[in-house]
Amino acid sequence: MTETQKCSCGQNEPKRIIFPCAGQANVGQIINLAAVQLTEEGYGTISCTALLAIGAENLIANALKSDEIVILDGCPMLCAKKIAEAQGLLPGQHLILTEIGLTKGPSKSYTDKDIETVVTACWKGEGRLDTSLISHKKNDEKDTRHGCSCSSNCSSIR
Asked: What pTM was computed for the model?
């Protein structure tokens, strides 16, 4: 069996949209900088979580077209995740910095190593959820990507 070659330019990477919680604490600052770096590296595209919070229709439509929604939260308050879910979007990957060993503190209390910790965790798939159980489609849409055509909303299982 022949192994499929990955394109080194990243064209075969899934289309990901990244919603960072860019809060005022250090973890929020780390997340925002990590999301920028992830975008520059071709992991996904950073998007505005505040714009998502006000229900920007074009942003929601683009998120629904993506292959994966990545939510980056700094702490257990889960602000970015709550904002996304309020708009009917469910993450395929959800990373919480305080759960991967970073400590919440003052806004300027971080290092380049902290940013790299988040970037590496995303590339490794940490926080990735079982996408066979979760779809980021709104609850009233059927998830046809996984072959489901029933009307029981099974694609919205969390």
From this structure: 0.76
- Ordered DSSP codes for 7-47: PTTSTTS--EEEEE---SSHHHHHHHHHHHHHHHTTS-EE-
> Which pLDDT score is estimated for 11?
58
Does residue 128 surpass a pLDDT of 60?
Answer: yes
Cα–Cα distance measured from residue 59 to residue 69, given in angstroms and rounded to the nearest whole number: 12
Q: Delimit the domains of the chain by residue range.
A: 16-133
For residue 57, the tally of other CB atoms under 10 A from its CB is: 8
Cα separation, 97 vs 117, whole angstroms: 9
Write down the CATH number for the domain with range 16-133: 3.40.50
pLDDT at position 14: 86
